[in-house]
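Appendix B. One record, verbatim.
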Amino acid sequence: MNTFGHLFRITTWGESHGGAVGVVIDGCPPQIDIDISAIQYELNRRRPGQSHLTTPRQEEDAVEILSGVFEGKTLGTPISMLVWNKDARPDAYNHLKDLYRPSHADYTYQQKYGIRNWQGGGRASARETIGRVAAGAIAKQILRERCETETLAFVKQIHTLEATVNTDTVTHDDIEASPVRCPDPIVSPKMAERIDQARRDRDSLGGIIESVARNVPVGLGEPVFDKLKADLAKAMMSLPATMGFQIGSGFDGITMTGSEHNDAFYNETGQIRTRTNNSGGTQGGISNGENIVFKIAFKPTATIGKPQQTVDMDGNEVTLEASGRHDPCVLIRAPAIVEAMSALVLTDHLLRQNAKA
């Protein structure tokens, strides 16, 4: 499926080295003020060519809104947005068209469909996430207008380097002040050097993105199968290169007893709160008003310059030494994508909750 969401639904389209990529949003409420510059800002955070630590592909990723917005407001009709591919180099992948790159979708796409776009990964490329970020930027504006909800994501760990960040107080400016989008001023430069070393070694690194959503209304989430945490997990695991998701205490919770892990309630001037947040902002799959905090593991970039053993489409063993443009670490550009997917899930569930009134 290329469509995500229930009431607030997005359909992304396009391939990495095709003419363009984009998204269609259906179910967006009418009369939402739309700031196009805010959409472009989010795309700029995701775009390639930001520094020597990212892929050198140069794309403006300039968004065009084709429908659904009039005089700065949404119409309630489908919103279509497009970004042209300006620096596509499909011929650079000619030597790969008959090979299966390790840890890519080449083999599985070929087996599933009997055909694949081998130019930069085609539909499996992370360039598909442009549509998610553009749609997520609109979702962010809905959340801000309706309930002042904020979604943030930052680099928590690169390889073995782990940052110390307070999710209650971290700000967008803190994150963007770092070239690797890690708001820990001590660990951030070490991460940058580690990534640059991997680039020089023609290798790649993975890591962890941590995300927090603040001021989330109580009651979002649909038991049993559409729990808020379940939809967040699906959203994050649908992103390229993701390998794991945990919310709240996650796997660390198994080392705690029930009395240690339970989030005790208390009354704060008429508002029910919890003293701890091991649940990560949801209980029974429904938001409880606390910050929604989760982490996503991203694998090392699959395309590397080191020689690797693989096979061609006829099953012959060959040595692949990939060339071209790729990120030595995908996490630098991932926060905008994670924030977008978080905003899409929260907006969809906000509309679903409002439909119950």
